[in-house]
Design goal:
It contains 14 helices and nine strands. Helices cover about 45% and strands about 15% of the residues. The longest helix has 25 residues, at about 50-75. It has helices at about 5-15, 20-30, 35-45, 50-75, 85-90, 110-120, 185-195, 205-215, 220-230, 235-245, 255-260, 260-270, 285-290, 340-350, and strands at about 80-85, 105, 130-135, 140-145, 160-165, 295-300, 310-315, 320, 325-330. The chain folds into two domains: about 5-260, no CATH class; about 295-355, no CATH class. It has a nine-stranded mixed β-sheet, with helices on both faces. A hairpin with a 2-residue loop joins strand 7 and strand 8 (about 320). The protein starts with 5 loop residues before the first helix and ends in a 5-residue tail after the last helix. It has about 350 residues and is α+β, with helices and mostly antiparallel strands.
């Protein structure tokens, strides 16, 4: 199978080669904010003449990728966390071709390892540390850290997400799944399929599938079993069908039709579930049902080195999430009134040493 080249990128992005690299780059920028880096690296790899501005954009993208690799090496050298997608997929790309990565996704085996990881990452002074919780009866935590990029005007922020759950599902018919399959290629396939719960598939997904199709999977039956066990047969089938319209699938060719029985079974399972609940109102109800709650930052804290997990403090109609690195107001929606915010701060002050 040929390597990913410019001709294949034209196919993946739906651009006629006669329209030229400028149109290809424009289509990449419309499809996904990271895809221009892939196009630039492909142009550079094939010796296409590039302006100084284009070369500098590509150089920053390579430095961004190396930064994520360095972060991953530093964290995994000290905490047993596992990476999802990003760097694993990048290693399937041929030398000189940049797999565009927006962020770094890490999974920790429990809160203790999650907060150890967050503390290590926080040594680099992030601009923002956000926390969300979801799931019941087991509550999972997701922490998002962001940093300013090399060029804040032109580049996306640097972002690392650490979670105690590998896949969070759709909050209705597909549950939270705590860990990924041991095989990294199978794990990447499922993680890519899971993206469908957040957004439509786009050309970067097709390119990733093409690269995974060049690597021989340990067992097609193993992939089918994992897709069923993780409730992702419909999404994986859709992803493979989407990719097949744009790129060669290689070793993954034929996997889509083989998923049909599992897809039918999974769709039947979902249809047989009780009607989805209505919008959750109130933090207590959300915590009881496992609906996602978002932490509005109230303050960062030091001196909690002995903490290895977060805790919820209820008051009135609200709740605070007290964590080893900061305190948050738990909210179910995007809008928070000034009164809610001020009440949360007063409650936090009233806790005093209890929150230390």
């Amino acid at each position: 199978m040929r390597e990913m080249d410019l001709a294949m990128l034209y196919d993946a992005l739906g651009v006629c080669p006669e329209q030229g690299p400028g149109r290809l780059y424009f289509a990449a920028r419309k499809a996904h904010y990271t895809l221009p880096y892939l196009v630039l690296s492909a142009l550079d790899r094939e010796g296409f003449p590039m302006s100084e501005a284009a070369r500098e954009e590509l150089a920053r993208a390579w430095r961004r990728a190396r930064h994520y690799e360095d972060v991953l090496a530093r964290v995994t050298g000290q905490v047993p966390v596992r990476v999802i997608k990003g760097p694993l997929l990048a290693r399937t790309y041929p030398e000189g071709l940049l797999r565009p990565t927006g962020d770094l996704d890490l999974v920790a085996d429990g809160e203790a390892d999650l907060w150890r990881t967050v503390r290590l990452l926080a040594e680099d002074t992030p601009q923002y540390v956000g926390v969300s919780v979801l799931g019941a009866p087991v509550r999972h935590v997701v922490v998002t850290l962001t940093w300013q990029p090399e060029d804040p005007l032109l580049d996306p922020e640097l972002r690392v997400e650490v979670a105690t759950a590998a896949l969070v599902g759709d909050d209705t018919t597909v549950p939270v799944r705590r860990a990924m399959p041991a095989d990294p290629l199978t794990a990447c396939l499922l993680a890519l399929a899971e993206e469908r719960f957040q957004r439509p598939f786009h050309p970067r997904d097709a390119v990733d599938i093409h690269m995974l199709g060049k690597a021989e999977l340990p067992s097609p039956d193993g992939v089918l079993f994992a897709a069923a066990a993780y409730h992702l047969a419909p999404e994986l089938r859709e992803l493979l069908d989407y990719a097949a319209q744009r790129v060669p699938l290689g070793h993954l060719d034929g996997l889509g039709p083989a998923l049909e029985p599992g897809e039918r079974k999974e769709l039947a399972r979902r249809a047989a579930l009780p009607a989805p609940r209505g919008p959750v109102t109130g933090v207590r109800a959300a915590l009881a049902t496992g609906a996602p709650l978002y932490g509005m930052p109230l303050r960062r804290v030091d001196g909690r080195a002995h903490w290895d997990r977060s805790c919820v403090h209820h008051y009135g109609d609200g709740a605070l999430l007290l964590t080893p690195v900061g305190d948050y107001l738990l909210v179910a929606g995007e809008a928070v009134t000034q009164e809610q915010y001020d009440t949360a701060l007063r409650e936090l002050d009233a806790l005093g040493e209890e929150a230390s």
